[in-house]
Design a protein that fits this description.
2% strand, mainly alpha, Growth Hormone, Chain: A, 2 strands, two-stranded antiparallel ribbon
């Protein structure tokens, strides 16, 4: 073989080096865009849908409508997410489908801005807008998971998503605090609805920028299509011989129903009956959210040494008395303590549930089972909300009814605990649980969904480094 002249690289080596540099440059660009997208989407969460129940109150729609606004659109949206496989096929690409959903979600804020400027919108109209928001948001989940797994190299996924999640949490806090300050200024100046319009404009623009960042990311030529198999069939297959998984699902659905007997009505209780300012309202929500974020890494270590099942017991017992604790005092200091305690309890509960699901569901079925879980979870929330709404309808929208709902919710949370008795103890090993933030609530801190594909690519990572991602 002829040797290349001294100082001259073979053409093949130069081509390979240029190709490698191009791939590295593309990867760095994608990682920056994925991080920025997470921040923008989180700002939207803090400024946008989080405030819809309060917006319903500001429009004079009543406390029952405000409570239903927190759950019914989520249920309808979880039904719409089931068309994702067909949507990906129609678009011919994971990226095009995700970008389309993100654009639709950003546009869903336009009717809210118009409603805020006009001072009115029909109840049905508001529910339709919220349903489109949730349907578009949940519709991106499975496709985005499959897409981002191809873009982020396996060796850096845990640390990359750890950093992204921290920035996303800061984005949510920034949105919450900014929204609260704008609304408080609007209320003080007699322009409360205009203030809602302003935060919805920023939320929509944040999601629109997020869609631009999504569109800028690359997509491999051979993109995996989402499985078309029904979630019901997948659930049946994965649940065969897994009694503990079935008990976990029964427990979770029962607990969510009990929680939402009172959960959706905390907005009205805080803003209408306790006459909180928007700043006080945000402080309490942010306290729960921040407590949840702070304790999760420590809980991850505890799950590894103590076991996910015991951690679930700890979280479950912790969330049982939370609504009843609001009966003790209306002092802001006491409620701040309750919210911090609640954030920590919910963190333990949700981390344990995710670890147990990861342990019992095969990787290839997680996306489909997550779709079923989203629907069943939203349905149980709606059942609990309906119980609370019926109580408000027939007992009256007064302080006594709210206190009754809080007590009933705590009592009802005891019943699902039966499903946890005798649950096999499992010690978590190396499951990095990276989460996507979907919403923030006064009674639960936040709603998240796991990002699949992180744990499978980092089997050598320890639980400590993995749990830094949440």
């Amino acid at each position: 073989m002829a040797m290349a002249p001294c100082g001259i690289q073979p053409t093949e080596n130069l081509a390979n080096r240029d190709s490698s540099r191009h791939r590295e440059s593309t990867t760095r660009r994608d990682l920056r865009a994925i991080t920025s997208d997470g921040i923008a989407q989180s700002v939207m969460v803090g400024l946008g849908e989080t405030w819809l129940p309060a917006f319903a109150l500001a429009l004079g729609m009543g406390e029952m409508v405000s409570g239903l606004m927190a759950t019914v659109p989520m249920l309808a949206g979880s039904v719409l997410q089931l068309i994702s496989p067909s949507g990906v096929r129609w678009c011919g690409s994971l990226r095009r489908w995700v970008v389309l959903c993100a654009v639709v979600q950003s546009v869903s804020f336009v009717p809210l801005v118009i409603a805020a400027s006009l001072g009115s919108i029909s109840v049905v109209g508001l529910f339709v807008v919220a349903t489109i928001y949730w349907g578009a948001g949940l519709g991106t989940g499975a496709a985005w998971n499959a897409w981002v797994e191809m873009l982020v190299p396996g060796r850096v996924r845990p640390k990359f998503f750890a950093w992204r999640t921290r920035l996303a949490q800061l984005g949510v806090l920034a949105g919450l605090i900014g929204g609260g300050l704008i609304l408080e200024y609007g209320r003080a100046s007699g322009a409360e609805l205009w203030a809602y319009g302003a935060i919805f404009v920023v939320a929509g623009l944040a999601r629109l920028w997020s869609s631009r960042l999504l569109a800028s990311q690359s997509e491999p030529a051979q993109s995996p299509s989402l499985a078309v198999q029904t979630v019901v069939a997948a659930s049946q297959r994965t649940s065969q011989g897994r009694v503990s998984q079935g008990r976990l699902m029964v427990y979770l659905l029962g607990m969510q129903g009990a929680v939402f007997i009172a959960g959706p009505f905390f907005n009205a209780w805080m803003l209408n009956y306790l006459q909180m300012t928007y700043v006080e309202f945000v402080i309490l929500i942010a306290a729960s959210f921040a407590a949840k974020a702070v304790v999760l890494p420590q809980l991850g270590t505890l799950a590894r040494t103590w076991g996910a099942s015991r951690l679930l017991w700890l979280g479950a017992i912790g969330i049982v008395p939370l609504p009843a604790m609001w009966l003790v005092s209306n002092h802001l200091g006491w409620l701040l303590f309750v919210q911090i305690l609640g954030g920590a309890a919910w963190a333990a509960h949700e981390l344990a549930m995710l670890l147990l699901f990861f342990d019992s569901i095969p990787r290839q079925d997680r996306t489909r089972v997550l779709s079923l879980y989203n629907f069943a979870n939203a349905a149980s929330m709606c059942v609990g909300t309906a119980i609370g709404a019926v109580a408000l309808q027939y007992l009256g929208e007064n302080a006594e009814t709210y206190l009754l709902l809080f007590a009933a919710s705590s009592a009802a949370r005891l019943l699902p605990l039966v499903q946890l008795v005798g649950l096999p103890q499992r010690v978590a090993t190396s499951v990095p649980l990276t989460l996507r933030l979907l919403a923030v609530r006064p009674s639960a801190g936040s709603f998240e969904r796991p990002v699949f594909g992180v744990s499978e690519s980092a089997n050598s990572e320890t639980m400590e480094s993995a749990n830094s991602s949440v």
